[in-house]
UniProtKB/TrEMBL annotation, chain A:
<dbReference type="InterPro" id="IPR046867">
    <property type="entry name" value="AldOxase/xan_DH_MoCoBD2"/>
</dbReference>
<dbReference type="GO" id="GO:0016491">
    <property type="term" value="F:oxidoreductase activity"/>
</dbReference>
<dbReference type="InterPro" id="IPR000674">
    <property type="entry name" value="Ald_Oxase/Xan_DH_a/b"/>
</dbReference>
<dbReference type="InterPro" id="IPR052516">
    <property type="entry name" value="N-heterocyclic_Hydroxylase"/>
</dbReference>
<dbReference type="InterPro" id="IPR006311">
    <property type="entry name" value="TAT_signal"/>
</dbReference>
<dbReference type="InterPro" id="IPR037165">
    <property type="entry name" value="AldOxase/xan_DH_Mopterin-bd_sf"/>
</dbReference>
<protein>
    <submittedName>
        <fullName>Oxidoreductase</fullName>
    </submittedName>
</protein>
<dbReference type="Pfam" id="PF20256">
    <property type="entry name" value="MoCoBD_2"/>
</dbReference>
<feature type="domain" description="Aldehyde oxidase/xanthine dehydrogenase a/b hammerhead">
    <location>
        <begin position="223"/>
        <end position="302"/>
    </location>
</feature>
UniProtKB/TrEMBL annotation, chain B:
<dbReference type="Pfam" id="PF01799">
    <property type="entry name" value="Fer2_2"/>
</dbReference>
<dbReference type="Pfam" id="PF00111">
    <property type="entry name" value="Fer2"/>
</dbReference>
<dbReference type="GO" id="GO:0051537">
    <property type="term" value="F:2 iron, 2 sulfur cluster binding"/>
</dbReference>
<dbReference type="InterPro" id="IPR036010">
    <property type="entry name" value="2Fe-2S_ferredoxin-like_sf"/>
</dbReference>
<dbReference type="InterPro" id="IPR002888">
    <property type="entry name" value="2Fe-2S-bd"/>
</dbReference>
<keyword id="KW-0560">Oxidoreductase</keyword>
<dbReference type="InterPro" id="IPR001041">
    <property type="entry name" value="2Fe-2S_ferredoxin-type"/>
</dbReference>
<dbReference type="GO" id="GO:0046872">
    <property type="term" value="F:metal ion binding"/>
</dbReference>
<keyword id="KW-0001">2Fe-2S</keyword>
Length: 747, 154
């Protein structure tokens, strides 16, 4: 497997800089691969010079091979969202190299790849393209500049006489050309030009940005040729499987049949880990069979001892917790206030009150978590694992092992789906166990969690009970809105201590709504969750826009307003959202609420949802009917305005995917805990959307030209309310919680 | 245990009740076939046994000894499989890609039995889960293949 050059940064630090770049290394697999980049410390020093220009260490990112292919180290990981292709488009546009000639990989850990405005490196928050866009364009332009200078040396002409065409430097006067691949070995040893000096291409001249360039990873993914973390193997490797304590915080007491299991065929060894037992074997199937045979006496957590763990109480039930959230009182912390909501409610003609609920949900990515850990003879450690933030994972491994971070190499294969699953969750990932087992056995260990262990230790999207009170004026228009959400945000749910400020992910989607309601207050009533919380595609918006937008339809009904006309009214001074809402109505053939009889004789209705998540705007309309008491979604129309778009086909694919996940949540998904344990441990108990439940999807991309927003998450939050609002119209029943499978529509 | 996989006879030293999936992945290093659930729920492990889509995670190797097993590694050696892959590329079906080995196998099996499937046929046969939501692209690719108006593209 690949060993990065960063393994021995101190050695490289002693050598001249040009020796540290682009050197082929013989790998254990016998293949030649490239090491990249400047020595880590040098890069760090350069990064420390100032945040104005990030991602300017061209040789750390780019290698141009003799065959003219461009190998790009992407700061952002590919997990299906198309970011590798987008990075190739953006860099290729300025480098003047066709994106189809790119080979993109996830960059190793290292400060030079922290190209985000925050100075961090995370693939998440729908940030990659919008946050990487300026840096990656500049990177391409710097690379092109270096190739032009190398071309001038090579051709013996002034650089001012040269230009480029895709993949080559051109001397127009003489008609001579030289391929990038022939110049790269010189170009990449040249000093990187001043980032302020490069001229970026005029957007009107873009060849690839803004076009539906084909994805770079499709053929490999259609033929099983991609190695995900779960597929990686190294010489001498053993396999491991674990059985976790049924509740977090419990520890291993005794194992009643350890010796018997040790004697089982293929079993190498049996291990005790914090809150888990493990079996190591030559084959994973043997490890799994062994570990599932282990009879463990689990010991309850001692109260107060494990202060860094969310100890799961033995009596925890989501049904009881839901009731608690609905009734609990406590400090209400304001996240957003405007006008005077008390006065607004007092003066209102009608006051409407209702409590709405969201449920816990699992990530359910198809690739189960795994980690492969190998200690090397020189004392270094290599770890392969699915992750959204290599530097953060490496720092965590350094903390856990006491090793210097630079002695740990993180390998980040393509993700078999993530949806927020592969962020750093304490007790939510197998790598600490894999590292411990590699240490204990002296062999490389690949640990795969079964789907059942994954359902037991996944970090959940938070629950909330939101108490709405709204005031309507005499015309039935909302003029005051008071919102108190009893919840815990995903970010504050990561640790065991709450931050000083409110967690914006707790209320996003209740806050930052564009509707003109003059008197309002949005507040959080913090309730600590017994379960471990995490980020789920579109995070707080994944539930909060459902809660808000369905209550808005309830208000429309109470005020005898059409929900589409009411939204247009409340957005009357917002041109961007008025345009978007009208665009989705037009896309659906004009707003038609129903109920109406469709061509096939079924009774149907349509509903609307809107959301402003992750810097983008979205509006959706869903058409539903009932079949045997179950909701069927026939059509979804969605208009999305991410400001500017890099790849329309990928945006459309992301909208399709977000619609599927949004539908899955609203129709089917709910993580239920009873007696401190999840009821479902596999897809049989936790159904997710299948092909026969997928509606036809119609997408309209609106490019307003506003600041570029996200794409992966923004299309999701408008979907659940669009569906539920349609169902309420169809059935005449107000629905205040997800999933719809909880509700019986047969009666 | 003797297994005929992709036209080649393999000897694997496993117990007869070992799931085919793990013989493929751990004994034969054929990792294109994926583990997703282990319960025949998700379909990521789908392979063809005598042309039929089978969930390898719950199929003991003893049940398929003597049968002809096709995995994603050899899908393009089959004319229909090659067309399915080409249609997958033309319609840009995969996102994360993890379920797609199984989807391609399931689609190949469906089209072998029903060359011109209706939407209802596709609903009934294509029960493999995809968390990325590529279902509409899958349906479009299968219809494209069935229409005969294209060789699957590419």
């Amino acid at each position: 497997m690949v060993n990065g050059l960063f393994d021995d940064a101190s050695l490289m630090q002693q050598g001249p800089v040009n020796l540290s770049r682009r050197r082929f290394m013989l790998t254990s697999a016998g293949a030649f691969v490239l090491g990249f980049g400047l020595p880590a410390r040098q890069a760090r020093a350069q990064a420390a010079q100032g945040p104005k220009y990030r991602g300017t260490q061209v040789p750390a990112f780019l290698e141009i091979r003799p065959d003219n292919t461009v190998r790009l180290q992407s700061p952002f990981i590919e997990g299906g969202q198309g970011t590798f292709t987008a990075m190739a488009q953006i860099v290729g546009e300025e480098l003047d190299a066709d994106p189809s000639t790119f080979l993109v990989e996830n960059a190793p850990a290292g400060d030079e790849y922290a190209v985000m405005d925050s100075g961090m490196r995370i693939t998440g928050g729908s940030m990659s393209v919008r946050n990487g866009y300026p840096a990656m364009r500049r990177l391409g332009a710097l690379g092109r500049e270096m190739l032009l200078q190398a071309g001038a040396q090579h051709l013996g002409v002034p650089v001012s006489e040269l230009t480029t065409q895709p993949g080559q430097v051109v001397h127009v006067a003489s008609g001579r050309t030289v391929k990038y691949g022939e110049l790269a070995h010189v170009a990449m040893d040249l000093p990187v030009p001043d980032p302020a000096s490069v001229k970026l291409r005029d957007p009107s001249q873009f060849r690839w940005i803004g076009k539906s360039v084909k994805r770079l990873d499709i053929y490999e993914k259609s033929t099983g040729k991609v190695d995900y973390a779960i597929d990686v193997r190294v010489d001498g490797m053993l396999h491991a499987a674990v059985q976790h304590a049924p509740r977090l915080g419990m520890t291993v007491g005794s194992i009643r049949n350890e010796e018997q299991v040790r004697q089982m065929k293929g079993v190498h060894s049996v291990h005790r880990l914090p809150g888990a037992v493990a079996v190591v074997a030559e084959r994973w199937w043997h490890a799994r069979r062994g570990v599932e045979a282990l009879l463990v006496n689990w010991v309850e957590a001692e109260p107060g001892v494990a202060s860094d763990i969310r100890v799961m109480p033995a009596d925890f039930s989501t049904e009881e917790f839901r009731k608690h959230l609905a009734t609990v009182s406590g400090k209400e912390e304001n996240a957003e206030t405007k006008g005077d909501v008390t006065r607004g409610l007092k003066n209102a003609h009608t006051v409407v009150e209702a409590t709405y609920f969201s449920q816990y949900v699992n990530h359910g990515q198809l690739e189960p978590p795994s980690a492969l850990a190998r200690y090397n003879p020189d004392g270094t450690l290599d770890v392969w694992l699915p992750n959204q933030a290599p530097d953060m994972f490496r720092a965590d491994m350094a903390r856990r092992t006491g090793m210097d971070a630079e002695k740990i190499t993180i390998h980040s294969p393509l993700l078999g789906g993530f949806f927020g699953r592969h962020f750093l969750y304490d007790h939510g990932s197998p790598y600490p166990q894999a590292i411990a087992l590699a240490k204990a056995t002296g062999r490389p260990i690949k640990l795969i969690w079964t789907r059942e262990e994954e359902f037991l230790r996944d970090a959940l999207r938070p629950m909330a009970a939101v108490r709405f009170r709204a005031g309507l004026d005499t015309t039935g228009c909302p003029v005051a809105l008071d919102v108190v959400s009893a919840t815990e945000g995903a970010t504050e749910g990561l640790g065991t201590k709450r931050g000083k400020d409110l967690d914006p992910t707790a209320l996003e989607g209740l806050t930052n709504k564009a509707y003109d309601i003059p008197d309002r207050r949005i507040a959080q009533l913090f309730v600590r969750n017994p379960a471990t919380l995490g980020y789920w595609r579109s995070v707080g918006n994944s539930m909060n826009d459902f809660l808000y937008e369905t209550f808005l339809d309830e208000l429309a009904d109470k005020g005898r307003q059409d929900p589409y006309e009411l939204r247009l009214h409340l957005l009357r001074d917002n041109r961007r959202l008025t345009t978007l809402l009208k665009a989705v109505a037009d896309l659906s053939g004009g707003w038609k609420r129903g109920p109406f009889t469709a061509a096939d004789g079924s009774r149907r209705a349509r509903g609307i949802g809107m959301a402003s998540p992750f810097g983008s705007e979205a509006a959706a309309i869903a058409e539903v009917s009932l079949e045997n008491g179950r909701v069927r979604v026939h059509e979804v129309w969605e208009a999305i305005d991410p400001g500017k778009v890099v790849n329309p086909a990928i945006v459309e694919a992301q909208v399709n995917g977000a619609i599927a996940l949004g539908l899955s949540q609203v129709l089917l998904e709910e993580t239920v805990y009873e007696n401190g344990m999840p009821r479902a441990r596999n897809y049989d108990g936790y159904p997710i959307l299948a092909l026969n439940q997928m509606p036809r999807v119609h997408v309209k991309i609106v490019e307003s030209g506003e600041k570029m927003g996200g794409v992966g998450e923004p299309p999701l939050p408008a979907i659940p309310p669009a569906v539920v609002n349609a169902v309420s119209t169809l059935t005449g029943r107000r629905i205040r919680s997800m999933p719809l499978s909880r509700h019986d529509f047969a009666s | 245990m003797e297994l005929n996989i992709n036209g080649i006879q393999h000897h694997v030293d496993v117990e007869p009740d070992t799931p085919l999936l793990w013989a493929l992945r751990d004994d034969l290093a054929m990792t294109g076939t994926k583990y997703g659930c282990g319960l025949a729920q998700c379909g990521a492990c789908t392979v063809l046994v005598d042309g039929q889509a089978v969930r390898s995670c719950v199929t003991p190797v003893e049940k398929v000894a003597g049968a002809s097993i096709t995995t994603i590694e050899a899908i393009e050696q089959d004319d229909l499989g090659k067309r399915v892959v080409a249609a997958w590329v033309k319609h840009q079906v995969p996102q994360c890609g993890y379920c797609q080995s199984g989807q391609v196998m399931a689609a190949t099996s469906l089209l072998r039995q029903v060359p011109h499937p209706t939407d209802a046929d596709i609903d009934a046969a294509m029960v493999n889960l995809c968390r990325c939501g590529t279902y509409n692209a899958i349906r479009a690719a299968i219809h494209d293949l069935a229409s005969g108006s294209t060789d699957g593209g590419a």
